[in-house]
Amino acid sequence: MAINTAKAIAAEERRSQALQLKVAGATYAQIAEQTGVSIAQSYKDIKKRLGEVRKGDRETVEQEWLLQMTRLERLLLRWWPLATGGDDIKAELGTNQCLKIMGQMNRIGGLEPDKPLIQFQANVQVNGTGATFADLLREANGGDVVEIEGVLANGSGEQSPGGDY
Fold first, then answer.
1. How far apart (Å, rounded) are the C-alpha atoms in residues 158 and 165?
2. Measured between alpha carbons, how far is 97 from 81 in angstroms, rounded to an integer?
3. What is the model's pTM?
4. Does residue 88 surpass a pLDDT of 60?
5. Which of 29, 95, 116, 136 has its CA 20 to 30 Å from the CA of residue 106?
6. Which residues, including other chains, have CB under 8 Å from residue 122's CB and lie 6 or more apart?
7. Is 68 left (phi over 0), alpha (psi -120 to 50) or beta?
8. Backbone angles phi, psi at 155, to 5 degrees
């Protein structure tokens, strides 16, 4: 039992060191190298430590959140001029980078829900009439091809050949 305890203590010390390195700006690769574990393990260590910290030390979590948001804002400011500039190629690259950064900011800021806010069910009856949403779509499209869940189907319910519709 002493061996398990020694391993547990070593893991706890490693996690604390990993979090300190992360707060100081180290990458997961740098943390892995300094703590003697894989990159994946360094990520898991930080995630576990932050989970523990969240439970008891709100101030530390807020500091980490602020640090991450500040870094993301700096990156966003770096790419924004390209995204809004006149060069189409650079604008596309800048826009893609800005969207990725803003997506990460939304995740960190809690603006993205864990699951979709709206869930679509194709066979839900509409207004108690017995008609399903899929029936209404078919009627609205005049029986034309409708894409449902990535499968193209014609009015007969048979799979149609792929193509641009």
1. 16
2. 11
3. 0.41
4. yes
5. 29
6. 132, 133, 134, 148, 149
7. alpha
8. -60, -25
What is the DSSP secondary-structure string of 12-27? Answer: HHHHHHHHHHHHTT--
Distance CA 60, CA 44 (A): 18
List Cβ neighbours of 39 (8 Å cut-off, separation of 6 or more): 28, 29, 32
Distance of CA 45 to the CA centre of its chain: 19
* For range 20-29, the mean pLDDT: 90
Whose structure tokens read 């910290």?
A: 53
pLDDT digits (tens, 9 = 90+) for 37-51: 999 999 999 888 877
Q: How many residues are present in the chain?
A: 165
Q: Cα–Cα distance between 138 and 162 in angstroms, integer?
A: 18
Nearest to 17 by CA among 51, 64, 49: 49
Q: What amino acid is encoded at 108 in this protein? A: I
